[in-house]
Amino acid sequence: MRLRNVTGSREVIAESRFVVQDPAAQKGKWSVLFGNQNPIHIEIGMGKGRFLMALAALNPDINFIGIEKYSTVLLRAIQKMEVQELPNLRFIRMEAEELCAVFGRGEIAQIYLNFSDPWPKDRHAKRRLPSRQFLARYHEILAPDGQIAFKTDNLDLFEFALAEVDVAGWKIAAMTRDLHHDETMSAGNIMTEYEEKFSVMGNPIYKCIIYR
Ligand code: SAH
Fold this sequence. Notes:
By secondary structure, the chain is of the alpha/beta class.
């Protein structure tokens, strides 16, 4: 996501009560932070947080954590929470490679990957969020019956994800190459910022749900 540098975003983040400042200190005890035993769902690369905010408002019995590496982007999500505070939603500013330092084994019930960066060069394949390297990290933090829901408008990234799922021994629970015209899979769909932008341009949205 390209945004001009917003002055002071790091300072706002450092002071925000919606942001978990020392996420590694919460490893294995996220339930304590939320004050309940509800399942925890995370979105990796949440952008400005629209998807998670809608989901958190609709599902008060689930705890949500949004992960975003860029402070200028995360700042937008914080500003939205200041307008509509949701007790079951927190944010972390971090690079997804650190996931296993922040979440304990099986601590997460569901992972959302929405419109992840494509990293088109072959030598950057391991940086793609559905890569086998990331699937190995998700395997650690995801509960045995946990799932990953992946949406994108990028066909190359989608095909890559399906191939990686196979290599890593994960399974596909559901899949569509045109989410918005798939009656079953689009039921209850919550649009992300990118999803709206790309579907308005006429791009089909690809989605798969995977488990192991
Ligand atoms: N999920 C949002 C934003 C998609 S853009 C939507 O669908 O509208 C992808 C976002 O993921 C960007 O904001 C980018 O900064 C973030 N991101 C990409 N790679 C990441 C990583 N490795 N760790 C954390 N955030 C990442």
